[in-house]
Amino acid sequence: GVGIFCLGAGLSVYHGITGLVTPSSMESMWIAMSILGISFISESITLGLAVRSIRRSAKDQNMSFTEFVLSGYDPCVNVVLLEDAAAVAGVVFCNASAHGLCS
Q: In this predicted structure, what is the pLDDT of residue 74?
């Protein structure tokens, strides 16, 4: 798993640097926006499932949502929550920058 992560990170850095050094025009804005939309929907669904799971677990432990997350009672669910929140934020940021809102 770590090897796949490192390989993916290395390729992302390589393509990012290549894109900055030799920029090219975007071929199809509709394809890019469609991919961002699908990513937003799928990541939002998994984020919603993580929030629902944490709320249920927090209720079982007589804790608030925030207390449960900060206590680290179930670190696996917390990792999914934070990863999905970061993914949704990243998709929103990409969409905003694609539309020129973050310039």
A: 77
Region for residue 26 given its phi and psi (left: phi exceeds 0; alpha: psi -120 to 50; beta: otherwise): beta
Question: 52: number of CA atoms within 13 Å, CB side?
Answer: 6
| pLDDT the model gives residue 103 | 46
Distance CA 9, CA 36 (A): 19
State the Cα torsion 45-47-52-54 to the nearest 10°: 160
In this structure, what are the phi and psi dihedrals at residue 100, rounded to the nearest 5 degrees? 75, 20
In contact, 57 and 77? CB cutoff 8 Å: yes
The label of the residue with tokens 């509709």 reads 30
The model carries a pTM of 0.68
CA distance 79 to 11: 24
